[in-house]
Amino acid sequence: MQQGNVISQSMIDRLKPGMTKSQVRFVLGNPVIDDSLNENRWDYVYTVQVADGKTQRQELVLYFLDDKLSYFKSDLMPTENQQATSA
User: Which of 15, 28, 34, 50 lies 20 to 30 A from 73 at CA?
Assistant: First the structure.
């Protein structure tokens, strides 16, 4: 059983500091957790229950400053090529 936003490596690789919220929404879709008290943080959570009954969970948390992507934390990180080009 799947729940939440599916986040792929290619989606993570498309994230760049300075992207607008609408650009991020185009890449990732709407965040699962909508925190009206902190509009500068978006949380994406994806869980899937695999055949052996265990649950796998991925999290992606994005932080915005002046409505632009500042940085993010994730279980998946940008690939080496993407890190080199975004630095």
Answer: 50
Q: What is the per-residue pLDDT across 6-47, written as a single tens digit (0 to 9) for each?
A: 788 888 899 999 999 999 999 999 887 767 778 899 998 887
For residue 44, the SS3 value is strand
What predicted TM-score, i.e. pTM, was given to this entire model?
A: 0.74
- How far, CA to CA in Å, does 72 sit from each of 21, 54, 58? 13, 27, 13
Please name the CATH architecture into which domain 2-76 falls.
2-Layer Sandwich (3.30)
Based on its alpha-carbon atoms, the radius of gyration of the chain, rounded to whole angstroms, reads: 14
Residue with tokens 């409505």: 67
